[in-house]
Fold this sequence. Notes:
The protein is of the alpha+beta class. About 40% of the residues lie in helices and about 20% in strands.
Amino acid sequence: xxxxxxxxxxxxxxxxxxxxxLSGVDNKLVxxxxxxxxxxxxxxxxRGFHTIKGGxxxxxxxxxxxxxxxxENLFDLLRNGELVVTPEIMDVILSSTGSVRDMFGYxxxxxxxxxxxxxxxxxxxxxxxxxLSQPSSSAPAPAPAAAPxxxAPAPAPAPxxxxxxxxxxxxxxxxxxxxxxAPAAAPxLQAVPAPAPAPAPxVMHQSDAELASKSPEEVIKAAVGRxxxxxxxxxxxxxxxxxxxxxxxxxxxxxxxxxQVLNLSGEIGLTxxxxxxxxxxxxxxxxxxxxxxxxxxxxxxxxxxVSDLQNAVMxxxxxxxxxxxxxxxRIARDLARNLGKDVELVLSGEDTEIDKTMIEDLSDPIIHLxxxxxxxxxxxxxxxxxxxxxxxxxxxxxxxxxxxxxxxLVADDGRGMNAEKLRAKAVEKGLxxxxxxxxxxxxxxxxxxxxxxxxxxxxxxxxxxxxxxxDVVRTNIQKLNGSIDIRSSxxxxxxxxxxxxxxLAILPVLLVRLGDQPFAVPLSMVREILPIEPxxxxxxxxxxxxxxxxxxxxxxxxxxxxxxxxxxxxxxGVLMQSAEQxxxxxxxxxxxxxxxxxxxLDDFRPKGVAGVTTLSNGQIVLILDMKELLxxxxxxxxxxxxxxxxxxxLPALAA
Length: 655
């Protein structure tokens, strides 16, 4: 039985509020370390801890009250000027906030938290007595036994779609209920069973006396503890976020936005009544001009109201990105201290709103980029001073809205990237050939860091060197229909630019056709539409290409990507651009542009299909994942001119 029987609602309210307070305290502590004489910061921190202690006392969480009370006493001495903020005292305080966060994990599970690490309690008492010059270096006591975790049964694995399984024709028939219009030459769909989610371990924060002995990866794991407010009422303990864990399905919505939805719903109800009355009039034989005009006005009003309602509902999904950003200053501080660097993380644009479903998926990529900036981008102190730079490095994390996209920047003022060295390292590792390296410009050279297995580190460490971090970053961003780009200047720093759609629920798409079969491709990748003239098709390196404003672009027929036979001449090309490359997608015709409401395919995850959508005429079409389709081809440089001209049914030119 839960230790909080009958107090569940009160407990969840406490976890949400206290989680936000604790995250704010962590950020203010990082600021306090840079401005130790700021009494306003100390007062804010004191009040936050006092509020947490009061709520814990009401819940009879005695061990949490004890820890908060000791830490509060230390804050009181600091704000009264009896003690001075030192790095050693700050280490103990941050260790205390980490232990408080761990205790929230037990409360989330409905059990009382155990006592804090006795070495942490001892360090707090020594700090209060003014005896702390260095934190206790004695071996930590064994962590208390973890509270029981309810483990959900593993989900049934998704069916595997391989060469003998579902092909494009069968997929289209299964989704649309109608036979496909083109014969499939080769199946391209595959899926793998989803692994059962493993419960995350409880991350126990030991005294930061051992901070210097921890690896950077251990520091990140300790600092990135998930806030209690992220998943109120969750059954799992607080710890590092696991992408396989059950997502938080709750969301905070401003009441004014709900009021707007309610008002629009009422307006739609009135318009519906008006349409019902007009329908009755028409069925009773009234078809005069006035009645038809009234019907037209009512339909137009309904269309406007439904659009407004859709926008209002979408806004309820939007959350300030500051809720994601607020945990990063602590991560950057701990990692920089571990590496012996002086780094300040500057946040900007925290009020920028982003779809709630993206926030969890963005957490790990941004952690990777911040870690990369602190570990690789920022120079050692001696190197910075020798180059005439300030001793303190600045890493900037910024968010802003540009049109229908959210742009996130992670920038450092470090050494920058050397394109020539990147190309040489990629050749050395066998990731590219000498010929490919010689044709790369700076932008393409920077993007080499995203290749699986690429790393500039001379040796593998806990924080870098295996060549997997940046590959994961790009993969996760692409899953959000976003892109990532790099800008760098030698000696001045590097900026990673993430561009994401405002929401994942609605995707602007371009409808293209192969024969009579429509497909949807993301409009964000479309640069322009152009005709394919056989006389303009040139062969470069054995590949069919076209020159567009001086840029040589490979031509890739959509039929080739899908493994279909080409039954008619592809007359048009869609100039597509991703973060890695640009190419021309050859198609038969267009069916228009729509804002697609994406519906996932729950029973299987076919490669190359992002989901399905229903068009305005009721037809169901597949939304293609162009990046996966190109990856499935293995060679994305295009097809030969002979093959393409054969598709164009021009054998004389192909000869």
